[in-house]
Amino acid sequence: MRAPELLTCCCCCCCWLLVPVYGIHPECRFHLEIQKEETKCSELLSTQTEKYKACPGIWDNLTCWHAADLGETVTVPCPTVFSNFYTKPGNISKNCTSDGWSETFPDFIDACGYSDPEDESKVTFYILVKAIYTLGYSVSLMSLATGSIILCLFRKLHCTRNYIHLNLFLSFILRAVSVLVKDDILYSSSGTLHCLNQPSSWVGCKLSLVFFQYCIMANFYWLLVEGLYLHTLLVAIFSPSRCFLAYLLIGWGIPTICIGVWTAARLSLEDTGCWDTNDHSIPWWVIRIPILVSILVNFALFISIIRILLQKLTSPDVGGNDQSQYKRLAKSTLLLIPLFGIHYMVFAVFPKGISAQYQILFELCVGSFQGLVVAVLYCFLNSEVQCELKRRWRGLCLTQPGGRNYRLHSWSISQHGSESALQIHRGSRTQSFLQTETSVM
């Protein structure tokens, strides 16, 4: 096998092992890049006037060679399509002989450094990252679905706080589904795509990218809504229950508008391939700026919430019960707010000078398990959820044979104490509401 063919085959294989960022089949993406380079070469050669030289300009399926005189040596950089694979900026050459163009020299592998030992470790790294984030999204998906069912089944858990949690869970579920679908379907080796017929399937591919981008942005904005809700509870300027519609508009509406603008920008400025490249900066920033804004606002809310909690905890007006309540809320806030995208501040503010591998490992692996952690903190460790589950479990146990005497005994006790319990309930309704709305854990 000739060196260019060997290098092409190796690069196609390595495309399968890269982190799945693009929206089209990796092998087809490689061929698409080749087609782009061929088009650029054809346009370049058509503008040259030296058509009658000994060696006319050609495209050799990898590199563009301009026309040359007999005995002339043409040297060009390594093919740009392999920029993700070679490890040093080398050059390759051809001689113009009486028999035409000579073979390319030196060898592609020697000139471009494709056989660098670091490549094997990079491939292993990407395989490991893909396995970790696939596991993370799968576990998060199951835990979020379970948590959503629990919050929906028990009527006593129906309140503004849990409605917001449900929408946050849904955004994490959609994010996990969009990633897994993109990996399992668009990148499935069993469903081999014919690259020559790829443009006919670009409509569905573009729609999948639109859905993927929407899920990512909606997830960020529902994290922002959680921060806004906690901040509203502490400031208590108005009832947070009355602005639930505003929360819905922020969580689902803003991403809808931004993705609509991004789609229009793509159609007008960069309607190429499957919208997986970012050659034009405007569509890219249409998505990146709103996400950065949500991260920065959430970080500001985090600082403000910590400041308010510290003031309330050190205030002499805060009594015993209120003191314990604010301590619980402080602990919950410290645990939850960092999950609201605060860890993205590391690379949003300091993107340069940090290894790309560390960034990939941090964002993909940590982000994939984020849904699991949120489900555990918001649902499974929530004291109200645990009480409702225990109460339902006791109810199921009482329906079993042998539980009849216990039910009669419990009914007798409840009848004798109904009047006093009613008075206690009426006297603590206001305090219970505040505790319910602020009891995150």
From TrEMBL:
Coiled coil spans: none
Membrane topology: Multi-pass membrane protein
GO biological process entries: adenylate cyclase-activating G protein-coupled receptor signaling pathway; cell surface receptor signaling pathway
UniProt main location, coarse: membrane
Entry GO MF terms: G protein-coupled peptide receptor activity; peptide hormone binding; pituitary adenylate cyclase-activating polypeptide receptor activity; vasoactive intestinal polypeptide receptor activity
Claim: Membrane is one of the keywords in the record: yes
Top-rank taxon: Eukaryota
Signal sequence region: 1-23
Pfam families: 7tm_2, HRM
SUPFAM superfamilies: Family A G protein-coupled receptor-like (SSF81321), Hormone receptor domain (SSF111418)
Transmembrane segments: 131-154, 163-181, 244-265, 285-309, 329-350, 356-381
Keywords for this protein: Cell membrane, Disulfide bond, G-protein coupled receptor, Glycoprotein, Membrane, Receptor, Signal, Transducer, Transmembrane, Transmembrane helix
GO cellular component: plasma membrane
Domain G-protein coupled receptors family 2 profile residues, every copy: 40-116, 129-382
Localisation: Cell membrane
PROSITE patterns on file: G_PROTEIN_RECEP_F2_1, G_PROTEIN_RECEP_F2_2, G_PROTEIN_RECEP_F2_3, G_PROTEIN_RECEP_F2_4
Function: G protein-coupled receptor activated by the neuropeptides vasoactive intestinal peptide (VIP) and pituitary adenylate cyclase-activating polypeptide (ADCYAP1/PACAP). Binds VIP and both PACAP27 and PACAP38 bioactive peptides with the order of ligand affinity of VIP = PACAP38 > PACAP27. Ligand binding causes a conformation change that triggers signaling via guanine nucleotide-binding proteins (G proteins) and modulates the activity of downstream effectors. Activates cAMP-dependent pathway. May be coupled to phospholipase C.
Subunit structure: Interacts with ADCYAP1/PACAP (via N-terminal extracellular domain); activated by PACAP27 and CAPAC38 neuropeptides. Interacts with VIP; the interaction results in VIPR1 activation.
Family: Belongs to the G-protein coupled receptor 2 family.
UniProt protein name: Vasoactive intestinal polypeptide receptor 2
Organism taxonomic ancestry: Eukaryota, Metazoa, Chordata, Craniata, Vertebrata
Gene expressing this chain: VIPR2
